[in-house]
Amino acid sequence: MSDSSVKKQPLLSVRELKKHFVTKKSFWGKPVEYSCALNGISFDIYPGETLGLVGESGCGKTTAGRTIMGLYKPTSGKVFLHGQVMDYSKGPDSRIQMIFQDPYASLNPRLTVGEIISEPMEIKGLYSQPGERQKRVEQLLDMVGLSREQANRFPHEFSGGQRQRVGIARALAVSPELIICDEPISALDVSIQAQIVNLMSQLQKELGLTYLFIAHDLAMVRYISNRVAVMNMGSIVELNDADELYSNPQHEYTRKLLAAIPEPYPE
Ligand SMILES: Nc1ncnc2c1ncn2[C@@H]1O[C@H](COP(=O)(O)OP(=O)(O)OP(=O)(O)O)[C@@H](O)[C@H]1O
Ligand SMILES: [Mg+2]
């Protein structure tokens, strides 16, 4: 059997994942009204790839990311990592990390950048020998293009792009297998966005990272993704290779999203 005929095992498999939020409770505390954010979504992510997840505001992208992370308890459905079902009973699993949309809100303002990056290692008890953790922080700062001296500074002393670099360093600290990127550049100046996307691509190549990349912007997602899943009202309506999805969209909703991209798109 040649290599290409061996089917690759998915890194992550999501099966029939549902999440309802209780939006109204009775006087006795019994839930009486739900909003359905995830309608039972299923997809695989393969090692080393970027799967883009796109759709309009409110379609459930962040809910999908946070449920896969273990930050929300799923209403039903399962998530598998390397074919093994994820057990979120002890909280999130450090093999999956997240980069958040808003670098201003996602970093603790009272901690130095060094402390912010160290925190996940502390929680996991990694790099616990004297000096090891500091060395790891310095290595991570190098990797994301910040200087070692910046470890002693606080988030408010950094620009938006620099803060997102800190968020990336923190996500990388415990060598995760999957990084969920929830609109990591949409809060940044347009002039900075390309720098952060390029950094993420470069880190992916160097470290063999796998990304779930959430975005509104179909044009940007095409540039970074191998495959793209299109979400509408809590469901995935189409999933295909990025080029195929753009050149030959099958679903009406995908066509609608594509039509909304301003032409010509300044690459
Ligand atoms: N904590 C929550 N409690 C109740 N409803 C929620 C909660 N989080 C999300 N929702 C609802 O679930 C739906 C999906 O929201 P979600 O934030 O996942 O969308 P999104 O695709 O990430 O949107 P955006 O592009 O604006 O970030 C929305 O209707 C939202 O109001
Ligand atoms: Mg969101």
What is the number of E strands?
Answer: 10
Output the strand order for the largest sheet: 6-7-8-3-9-10
CATH topology annotation: Rossmann fold
Count of helical stretches: 8
CA distance, first residue to last residue: 41 Å
The ordered string of helix (H) and strand (E) elements is EEEHEEEHHHEHEHEEHH
CATH superfamily: P-loop containing nucleotide triphosphate hydrolases
C-alpha Rg (nearest Å): 19 Å
CATH A-level architecture: 3-Layer(aba) Sandwich
Strand content: 25-35%
Give helix % range.
25-40%
Shape: globular
Q: Are any ligands bound, and if so which?
A: adenosine-5'-triphosphate, magnesium ion
Residue-averaged pLDDT, rounded?
A: 92
Specify the biggest β-sheet: 6 strands, mixed
Structural class: alpha/beta
CATH class, anyone? Alpha Beta
Topology record:
Elements: E1 12-25, E2 31-45, E3 50-54, H1 61-69, E4 76-81, E5 84-85, E6 96-99, H2 113-124, H3 132-143, H4 160-172, E7 178-182, H5 190-207, E8 210-215, H6 218-224, E9 227-232, E10 235-241, H7 242-247, H8 252-259
The protein binds adenosine-5'-triphosphate and magnesium ion (MG).
Task: Describe the fold and architecture.
The protein is α/β, with parallel strands linked by helices and 267 residues long. The chain has one domain: Rossmann fold (3-Layer(aba) Sandwich), CATH 3.40.50. Helices cover 32% and strands 26% of the residues. It has eight helices and ten strands. β7, α5 and β8 form a beta-alpha-beta unit. α2 runs parallel beside α4 and α4 runs parallel beside α5. Adenosine-5'-triphosphate binds next to β1, β2 and α1.
